[in-house]
Design a protein that fits this description.
By secondary structure, the protein is α+β, with helices and mostly antiparallel strands. It is about 25% helix and about 30% strand. It has a 6-stranded mixed beta sheet with strand order 2-3-1-5-4-9, covered by helices on one side. Strands 6-8-7 form a 3-stranded antiparallel beta sheet, covered by helices on one side.
Length: about 180
């Protein structure tokens, strides 16, 4: 990766790209939040689509996803090439077995995309993440009812032939979009 997004103030407000200014005063353009095991792959996809792109990262969020930013927006043809790369990644059998997902999240903090790997149900530790896999929708809903405490909500979603629970805070994460 070629740099870090911003000052301490910017890192504290990483979800708000307008506040994530780089040290040289350039406001980074949010790309997505990625699971740490997918960072190198995302970098390769960006650089294959836009060899001149400068990719920056911030500290992981509470779910362990790493916010990634570009110094400048991708041109439309570069953005299309990057999206094709993401589609190809999600279609790979290894990533499908892992349950790798790409989703758009919309909540009171704004909109962001996440490229992640689900957390196993027995490893869930009280964060807003995708949990699974489950054998079917009923098993996903049963886990939600048993595991999620006050203030947490979960939506059962299908992805790559399995079921997952999109876990989010009921007090601030009011709108979520499903996995691709």
């Amino acid at each position: 990766m070629s740099g870090r997004a911003g000052s301490a103030r910017g890192r504290a407000a990483a979800a708000d790209a307008a506040d994530a200014a780089n040290d040289d005063g350039v406001t980074p353009v949010p790309l997505l939040r990625a699971h740490p095991t997918l960072l190198e792959t995302v970098a390769q996809l960006v650089w294959a689509a836009a060899p001149q792109a400068q990719l920056m990262r911030d500290d992981p969020d509470d779910a362990g996803l790493v916010p990634l930013y570009l110094r400048a927006p991708l041109r439309p043809d570069e953005a299309e090439a990057f999206e094709r790369g993401l589609d190809a990644l999600l279609a790979e059998s290894t990533e499908r077995r892992r349950g790798t997902y790409l989703r758009e999240v919309r909540d009171l903090r704004g909109r962001r995309r996440e490229l992640g790997v689900p957390v196993a149900p027995d490893a869930w530790s009280g964060t807003a993440v995708m949990v699974g896999p489950f054998a079917d929708e009923s098993a996903a809903n049963t886990w939600s009812q048993r595991a999620l405490g006050l203030g947490w909500l979960g939506d059962a979603l299908p992805n790559a032939g399995a079921w997952y629970v999109d876990v989010f805070r009921g007090d601030d994460d009011t709108m979520r979009a499903g996995a691709n």
